[in-house]
Amino acid sequence: MERRGLRAVCxxxxxxxxxxxxxxxxxxxxxxxxxxxxxxxxxGGWLFTFLGAILKGLASLIFRLLTILVPALIVAGAVYFILxxxxxxxxx
Length: 92
Known about the structure:
membrane; mainly alpha; transmembrane helix
């Protein structure tokens, strides 16, 4: 009995031949996958551009609020400590 490899058992000789139609189908499938990947990247780019604009606006809003709130909190803290110092009972 002649010993043949696993590939020879699983794939007969006639399956090693590819027709022009098989090659053409693989080429078209590859092109479709490439186009689909490009479309996904294009849509993702637009999505991230829109998301970036929203996040930039949100960061601007937070920055504007902090430019008002930080000085107000500093003044409120100073007033609190001054009032606490003034109202502190004097021990003799």
